[in-house]
Design a protein that fits this description.
With 166 residues, the protein is α+β, with helices and mostly antiparallel strands. It contains five helices and four strands. The radius of gyration is 26 Å and the shape is elongated.
């Protein structure tokens, strides 16, 4: 092994020649101090984005659309109300995603606020979710499926609360 070190040092000035033997296995040359590289430089590496991140981005985008009352089916919403009581809101409730290396697809289940036009709300959710995934996550969105499973009527919470009290 000593022979290899001598040959490396004798072969001329290389970035690895100035590194210590312990640092030789590093993928990053730390032999000199340099300030942070410009942001426009192409740096090798890999970014992996979890499905839950894409689902959360989709859920947040869908909730911001006018006319969306809630996301998720009846059971999921009931569980969501329990979570909400403990300030543990699940932003992925009612959202399922499939994420590939460059593409994503999303399925959303939602409740529309009455009297909002359901088709308009669905189209706006589709656009908002697609734009959010594309701009924040950087994936191509191949489809956004919207299932409307309920319509929320104004005052429903008060009626449900009154029936529980009586």
């Amino acid at each position: 092994m000593a022979t290899e070190d001598q040959n490396t040092a004798a072969s001329g000035p290389t970035p690895t020649a100035s590194r210590s033997a312990g640092a030789r296995d590093s993928r990053v040359d730390r032999s000199f101090s340099q300030s942070r590289p410009p942001s426009d430089s192409a740096t090798a590496g890999r970014t992996t984005i979890a499905d839950s991140v894409v689902a959360k981005v989709a859920g947040i985008a869908a909730r911001e659309v006018a006319g969306v009352y809630a996301l998720g089916g009846g059971g999921a919403r009931a569980l969501g109300m329990l979570r909400g009581a403990f300030d543990a809101t699940d932003l992925t409730q009612g959202v399922k995603v499939e994420v590939g290396e460059t593409q994503a697809a999303a399925d959303l289940t939602l409740v529309v606020e009455y009297p909002a036009p359901i088709q308009d709300v669905a189209a706006n959710v589709r656009a908002a979710v697609s734009d959010a995934i594309r701009s924040l996550v950087g994936l191509e969105v191949v489809e956004v499926n919207v299932a409307v499973n309920d319509v929320h009527l104004p005052g429903e919470e008060k009626e449900a609360e009154e029936s529980r009290v009586s």
